[in-house]
User: What shape does this take?
Amino acid sequence: MMGIGSTTFAPNINVTRAMFVTILYRMENEPNVDISIIPFTEVESGSYYEKAVAWTNENGIIKGVSETEFAPNDTITREQMAAIIYRYAIFKGLDISTVNDTSYADSADISDYAKEAVAFCTENGIMNGVGSGQFAPKSFATRANIAAVIERVMKILK
Assistant: This one.
């Protein structure tokens, strides 16, 4: 992760979907990618995240909010982050089997697409609850949250 300036990390700023996939792309040393394959119409040509979106899409790590929209400037939710990490783990060849028991007080609020991902992230210590036994799937992730999660992902990858 880079700061938002030469001396500022801004830990409490929310992270966008584009920012998050860019972090993963950088973790992979920014591999070459064919940007012409991006199916999302609102991904700006030449943007800082364009190659990251192309790479994560090509490798099955991301899905759009629709078939043609990625929503790069939307703030990433905790359940979206879990789903992307889960797909990244699959890409990296990790064992993704889980018992699928999250036991969070707000488990019913976790979207179906993210349930396995949340279980994987919880069982592997990548993501934890936010207090009162809740996962808070629709809450936004800050730069500090993301930094902690990425550090835990890096430990698992070693």
Summary: The first helix runs from residue 17 to 27. DSSP finds five helices and no strands in the chain. Helices lie at 17-27, 50-58, 78-91, 115-123, 143-157.
